[in-house]
Amino acid sequence: MSTLFEKQFEVFLESQRTKASARRLEMLERDLTGTIKLLREVIWPIFRSFDGFELEYEMRSPNGVTMFIDVFYQPYCIAFECDGYSAHVEMITRERFNFEKSRVRSMLLKGYAYVPFSWDELDKKSVFLQKFCI
User: Fold this and answer.
1) Over the Cα atoms of the chain, what is R_g?
2) C-beta separation of 78 from 42 below 8 A
3) Which of 98, 134, 117 is nearest to 36 (CA)?
4) What is the pLDDT of residue 92?
């Protein structure tokens, strides 16, 4: 049986796909497991809606590089990210590490509030994280 979250997420995801650019659509077609976990564990319990949110939000860095934010809340310019340890720390190259730091600076230069979560936090401390976001 589908939960309300799952039903609403499917509608939301389809809506996001229909209005996405080609590059953003490619991002939306990738594995969204971490993004879904972030939405389910932190964002949905607080907002109970996907209004104002955009998945794989496309932004340009000051030097013109296209970057994507996992979940962006447009009304307050909040950039939510779910970072798995292996993909974002353990197994990355030096260049990727530098790119990730550039992404954070780009968000800050645009005035976005950067709110990162690790996969492990979402697994073990979601109730605490919800309180942090309120």
Assistant:
1) 15
2) no
3) 117
4) 74
